[in-house]
UniProtKB/TrEMBL annotation:
It comes from Nocardioides agariphilus. Residues 19-30 have a biased composition (Gly residues). Its main location: other. It comes from the Bacteria. This is ABC transporter substrate-binding protein. Residues 76-447 form the Solute-binding protein family domain.
C-alpha cells in the first residue's frame, strides 16, 4: 500500500479517537468515520463508463437516481424525484424542489436530460447504456436518444416517452448507471477522469473528496443533500486490496472496519471460528455463469456448447471450489423471480460424459476439442481460479476436451473477452434491479453487454413482449420460454447463486441492514460506535 493510503487511513483513525463529529464538510453527520476494505476493482467513477459493483459502490453514494430501492425492499421509491407511469409507455417524474449538487449548483430537469443523453451517446463498452434501449434510437453506429424520448417542460418535470411498453423502466432508473450528474462539470461526449474529484459532482449523501485508483477513495458527507439517505459518518474511506489475504488480516486486526467483497469461503469460516470479527450474511442474488464467445470457432459451434452444458457438474464446483457455500444454478434467472424455471436441469439432467459424446458425435465434431477458458483472478475473489480449474478438470477427464485456463486483470479482461481471447469465460452478475428481465435482456439481446455475438430474433421478440406484458401469468410464461431457449442455444451456462456477505468488527452497526439482493452498499445506513 502506498503512503497515500496510510495517511488517509490514519486520518480516519484520528476522527474516531476524537469522537468523529467534524465541523469541516461533515454535512451534519455526528458519528465516527470508518473504513471499508474491498478487493473490488473500479472500472470508472463516471456513471457513463461502468457496469460493475466496484464502480457502482462509489456511484450509489455520491450520486442520486430518480428513484431508489430501499434496503430489503423491491419496489422503487422516490429519491431525487417522484415518478409514476401515465401509461405503459410514459413516465412522468417530478424533481425535488430546490435540489442542489454538492458544489451548490442547482439540479434541474436539464441535468436529468443531460445525464441520460450522454450515457447513451458515449455508449462506453464497459458502461450500461444497454439498459436504456427503451429510450435509445437503436443505432449502434450513431447511438443517441430516440426523437422525443425525454421531455422537460419545466425545471422540475421530466417525462420519458418510451419506444415500447416497458414494465421494467421504473426499475431501470434506480440503477447507478442512471445517476444524475452536473452538466456544468461533466463532459457531454466523454467520460470524466476518475481522479478529477473537483468535477465529479453529484447530489448524493456523500461527495468524493479524494480518489487514487487501486488504493483508496475518500468520501465526505454532503452538506447540500436533501433526501432521506442521511449520512451518519462525516467521512468514509474505501481501501482497495489486490488480494483477499491482506484484506482478511486487515479486518481481523482492525485496520479496516468492514470487509465486503471478497473473502473466500475458507477465510469466512476461519474468521467465524476465531471470533476476531463478525461474519454477517444477508440475502443475495449473486449469480456466476460461463459465457460463450460466438466469434471463436469453438464458441460458435452449438454442439460443443451443448456438450459442455451436459457435462458441467455444478455440485462439484460448489463443493470443491467454494466449500459448499454456494447453490448450484440451473437457470439464467435465479430462484424467487417471476417465471423462473430450471431449464438447464430439465434439458440436460445429471452431468453425463456419455450424453455429451452423443451430442458431439451426432454433429460430427472431432474430439478432443481444444477449448480455452478465461477468468479474472482478483475480481470475483480467490475461488474463481478454483472454479476455472474444476471446470477444466471436468472437461479434460472426459477425454472429449483439451481445456486450458488463462487469466487477465479485470480491466483488461472486460475488453479481451469481447475480442475473442477465450472460447468460454466466467462473469458474475448482481442485479441492477429486482426483476427477472434483468437476468435476461442484459445477457441475451443481441449479445448483451458482454458482446458475445449471440443473436436470436425469437429471443429479441420475446424480450420485447415480456417487458411490456401487464398480465402476470402471461409474462411468467414468456420468461419461462426465454429460459428454455437459452438452455437450447447455450449462449451462456449458469453456474451458481450466492449470498451477500460482509465481515465487520464489533463497533459497526447497520451493516446487516444493507446486505440485501440489490448489493447496494449503503454508506448512509452504517455507523461506528
Amino acid at each position: 500500500m502506498s503512503a497515500l493510503v496510510g495517511t488517509l487511513a490514519a486520518c480516519g483513525n484520528e476522527s474516531d479517537s476524537s469522537g468523529g463529529s467534524g465541523d469541516n464538510g461533515d454535512g451534519g453527520a455526528t458519528g465516527n468515520s470508518w473504513i471499508l476494505g474491498t478487493t473490488d476493482a473500479v472500472t470508472s467513477v463516471d456513471p457513463a463508463g461502468a457496469y460493475d459493483f466496484g464502480s457502482w459502490n462509489i456511484e450509489y453514494n455520491i450520486f442520486q437516481q430518480l428513484m431508489t430501492v430501499p434496503a430489503n425492499g423491491s419496489d422503487p421509491e422516490p429519491d431525487l424525484a417522484d415518478c409514476t407511469y401515465d401509461d405503459p409507455q410514459t413516465i412522468t417524474c417530478k424533481l425535488t424542489e430546490g435540489a442542489k449538487f454538492s458544489n451548490g449548483d442547482d439540479l434541474t430537469s436539464s441535468d436529468v436530460l443531460f445525464s441520460f443523453k450522454r450515457n447513451i451517446e458515449i455508449a462506453d463498452p464497459n458502461g450500461a447504456s444497454v439498459l436504456l434501449g427503451s429510450i435509445s434510437n437503436g443505432d449502434a453506429d450513431n447511438p443517441g436518444l430516440a426523437d422525443g424520448a425525454i421531455e422537460t417542460p419545466d425545471d422540475t418535470t421530466v417525462v420519458f416517452h418510451l419506444n415500447q411498453p416497458d414494465q421494467t423502466f421504473m426499475q431501470v432508473i434506480t440503477s447507478a448507471s442512471n445517476s444524475i450528474v452536473d452538466e456544468e462539470t461533466f463532459p457531454a461526449d466523454d467520460k470524466l477522469a476518475d481522479d478529477d474529484t473537483e468535477n465529479m459532482i453529484g447530489s448524493g449523501p456523500y461527495k468524493l473528496s479524494q480518489y487514487k485508483a487501486g488504493e483508496q477513495a475518500v468520501f465526505e458527507a454532503n452538506e447540500t443533500y436533501q433526501g432521506t439517505k442521511t449520512p451518519q459518518a462525516p467521512q468514509v474511506f474505501i481501501q482497495y486490496f489486490t488480494d483477499p489475504a491482506p484484506l482478511k488480516t486487515a479486518v481481523e486486526g482492525g485496520q479496516v472496519d468492514i470487509a465486503w467483497r471478497t473473502l473466500s469461503p475458507t477465510d469466512l469460516n476461519d474468521i467465524e471460528s476465531n471470533g476476531k470479527a463478525e461474519v454477517i450474511r444477508g440475502k443475495g442474488s449473486e449469480f456466476r455463469y460461463w459465457v460463450w464467445q460466438f466469434s471463436t470457432e469453438v464458441g460458435k459451434n452449438k454442439a460443443i456448447r451443448q456438450a459442455v452444458a451436459q457435462m458441467m457438474d455444478r455440485q462439484a464446483i460448489s463443493d470443491n471450489a467454494y466449500d459448499g457455500t454456494v447453490t448450484p444454478s440451473y437457470s439464467i434467472v435465479p430462484p424467487g423471480f417471476t417465471g423462473q424455471k430450471d431449464s438447464f436441469q430439465e434439458k440436460y439432467g445429471d452431468p453425463s460424459v456419455d450424453k455429451a459424446k452423443e451430442i458431439l458425435d451426432a454433429a460430427g465434431v472431432k474430439t478432443p476439442v481444444k477449448i480455452k477458458l478465461g477468468y479474472p483472478p482478483e475480481h470475483y475473489g480467490p475461488n474463481t481460479v478454483d472454479e476455472a480449474n474444476e471446470l477444466a478438470d471436468q472437461l479434460n477427464s472426459s477425454g472429449l476436451f483439451e481445456a486450458t485456463t488463462e487469466d487477465a486483470a479485470w480491466e483488461e479482461y472486460q475488453t479481451i473477452t469481447k475480442e475473442g481471447a477465450y472460447d468460454l469465460f466466467i462473469l458474475g452478475w448482481y442485479p441492477d434491479f429486482l426483476d427477472a428481465d434483468n437476468y435476461l435482456s442484459p445477457f441475451i439481446r443481441d449479445g448483451g453487454f458482454f458482446a458475445n455475438n449471440y443473436s436470436n430474433e425469437e429471443v429479441n421478440s420475446l424480450l420485447d413482449k415480456e417487458i411490456g406484458e401487464t398480465d402476470e401469468a402471461a409474462r411468467a410464461d414468456e420468461i419461462g420460454q426465454l429460459q428454455d431457449i437459452v438452455a437450447e442455444d447455450v449462449p451462456l451456462i449458469p453456474s451458481w447463486n450466492g449470498q451477500n456477505v460482509a465481515v465487520a468488527n464489533s463497533s459497526m452497526e447497520g451493516v446487516e441492514d444493507t446486505l440485501d439482493p440489490t448489493y447496494i452498499f449503503r454508506f448512509w445506513l452504517i455507523s461506528k460506535k
